[in-house]
Every structure is written in structure tokens, then in C-alpha cells.
Design brief:
Elements: H1 4-19, H2 43-58, E1 66-72, E2 76-85, H3 89-92, H4 98-105, E3 111-117, E4 120-125, E5 137-149, E6 152-161, E7 167-177, E8 183-192, H5 195-206, E9 217-220, E10 223-226, H6 229-251, H7 259-272, H8 275-278, H9 283-298
Antiparallel strand pairs: 1-2, 2-8, 3-4, 4-5, 5-6, 6-7, 7-8, 9-10
Helix pairs in contact: 1-5, 6-7, 7-9
Length: 302
């Protein structure tokens, strides 16, 4: 029979594991220049950042213009992803609306629901299967409209508290047009954690997550190997959320009644291009689960 303390500890571990999909980045280099980890703050500054990163965007292992980096401290982690999307800036500007962020965030496996209100966004994270919403963990963000200009967009999501002693969550998107049909986006994510959450995540990485890998390589015994551990977790989820943004933007070309189905199918197809890192279930299982969850989201349950 499991003691009350044992049940509490198991719940703590589960909460951290369920929240893992929120952890965006993993680093291609922990010594990346500081300016690559900061918010540009204007369209001109972000386009200048594009010029600095252009070689990395054009030559990488992702098969698309994408650059990832991160920095992990003793009690915090920050990650950033930069990418070019094949969409005019007017499409990207729809992410000025919190409700449209829910259309993005619902796509990965573990997100069970997303609701938005006046200046708020609540994300419900659960298992990679269908389950009642009351079993999911709710994370409440303030949705902050930092900037929306003809050539620049910035939105920030902030949450003071998370599960198992995690705190000070910050997610920021900034974007600027490159030309009439392409936009440059920067997604930044950071949070702080305590001893319990760090131990719980390490337990996950040593058990269920032990065979999972990311996209970057490290040298081990003179051979290049795909990274695992926390870097692997961060890289997988960085890619999942980047693909979710791209799938959402692609869906805007469809009639409104067809946009949800297009988002779901495109996100799954994009993810399967990186099957070694991102595959969790087959298409039919994913679509059945997400159709139910998007219906729940549209109905305002939460």
C-alpha cells in the first residue's frame, strides 16, 4: 500500500513529466552570444538578427531555415528558436490574439485544452492519450500585448507559478516581415525550477525518457551522437511548437470550416518528417484524440 507521502511524490513526478512539452529549447551551443538569446524589440533589430543568423538558417540539419539555442543555469533554463515561415506578415499578425495562440498550443500531444479571456490564457497539460480535463494540470498565463506595429509584432505570456515548485514562466514571440511572402520569427521560453522539480525530471529522463533523443549532436568517444537528456527534451518540444505555429499559419489559407482539420493533419505530417525524435503515435490515434480535444476547446470547457 502506497503512503500519502509516496502518492504525493508520484504526483509531483507526473506533473513535471506532463509539463515537459512546454519546455522549449535545447542548445546547439551553451556559449551562444547573448544577443542571440535576447528579445530584439523592434522590426529593424529583428531583421538585423536575421542577417547575423542567415548562414545558420541556410545550413543546418533541419531541412528548413531554423536555428535553435539554449542556456541552462543551476535553477533556470532559457531557450530560443528562430525561423523563416513562408507566410506574409499579415498572417503572423493574427497571433496578436490570445485565442489564436490556443489554436497553436492545442496541437502537440500533451496539450488537452486551452482557453483565453481578457488578458489571460490557460493551458491544460496531460497524458498523451484522451483523458478527462480534471486530470490535467492547469497553467495560467497573463497574455501581454507588448507591441503590434506595421513591421513588428511582440506578444508575451507570463505565469508566476507552475507545478512542483517551478515558477516565473515566460514565453515571448516576436516577428517581422522579410518580404511580401516571408516572415522571420523568434520564439523565446524560460522558467525557473527548484530541487524537487529537477529531481523529478531526472527520474523521468532515467526511465521513460531514457531512449529519446534530440536533434543536435555531441561527441562521445570520438563519435557524433544525438543528444539525449534535458537537451533532447527541449529540442523535441522546440520543434513541436515551431511546427505548430507553421501548421496554424498554413491553415489560414483554408476555408474556416476546414482549418482545424488542416492544422491537425499538417502538424502530424510535419512532425513525422522527424520521426526518430517526434513520433509518439500513429495518425489515426492522434487525429481521434485531437478532434475530441479541439471540440472541447471550441465548446469552452475547462
Amino acid at each position: 500500500m502506497i503512503s500519502a507521502a509516496g502518492r504525493a511524490w508520484r504526483a509531483a513526478i507526473l506533473s513535471v513529466v506532463l509539463l515537459a512539452p512546454l519546455a522549449l529549447p535545447a542548445a546547439s551551443s551553451p556559449s551562444a552570444p547573448a544577443q542571440e538569446r535576447t528579445i530584439a524589440g523592434s522590426g529593424d533589430a529583428l531583421r538585423a538578427r536575421y542577417g547575423e543568423l542567415r548562414t545558420r538558417l541556410e545550413h543546418n540539419a533541419f531541412g528548413q531555415p531554423l536555428y535553435l539555442l539554449s542556456e541552462e543555469g543551476s535553477k533556470s533554463v532559457q531557450g530560443d528558436v528562430y525561423g523563416i515561415v513562408d507566410h506574409p506578415f499579415r498572417d503572423v499578425q493574427t497571433l496578436a490574439d490570445a485565442a489564436n495562440w490556443c489554436h497553436v498550443l492545442i496541437l502537440p500531444f500533451n496539450t488537452k485544452n486551452c482557453t483565453s479571456g481578457a488578458g489571460t490564457l490557460s493551458l491544460y497539460v496531460g497524458r498523451k492519450s484522451q483523458e478527462p480535463i480534471d486530470r490535467a494540470f492547469r497553467l495560467d498565463f497573463r497574455f501581454i500585448p507588448v507591441a503590434a506595429e506595421p513591421g513588428y509584432l511582440q506578444r508575451s505570456l507570463r505565469a508566476a507559478d507552475g507545478p512542483v515548485g517551478t515558477r516565473n514562466y515566460a514565453i515571448t514571440l516576436e516577428a517581422a516581415p522579410l518580404d511580401d511572402t516571408h516572415s522571420f520569427i523568434h520564439l523565446s521560453y524560460s522558467y525557473q525550477y527548484g530541487t524537487v522539480s529537477k529531481i523529478a525530471m531526472q527520474l523521468y529522463l532515467n526511465t521513460a525518457g531514457s531512449d529519446k533523443v534530440g536533434f543536435s549532436t555531441s561527441q562521445e568517444g570520438g563519435r557524433a551522437r544525438l543528444v539525449g537528456g534535458m537537451r533532447g527534451v527541449m529540442e523535441r518540444n522546440t520543434m513541436r511548437y515551431y511546427l505548430a505555429i507553421d501548421a496554424y499559419l498554413n491553415s489560414l489559407a483554408a476555408p474556416p470550416a476546414q482549418q482545424v482539420e488542416r492544422r491537425l493533419n499538417e502538424w502530424f505530417s510535419m512532425s513525422e518528417k522527424y520521426r526518430r525524435q517526434l513520433h509518439e503515435m500513429d495518425r489515426d490515434e492522434y487525429l481521434a484524440m485531437k478532434r475530441a480535444e479541439t471540440r472541447r476547446m471550441a465548446g469552452g470547457a475547462g
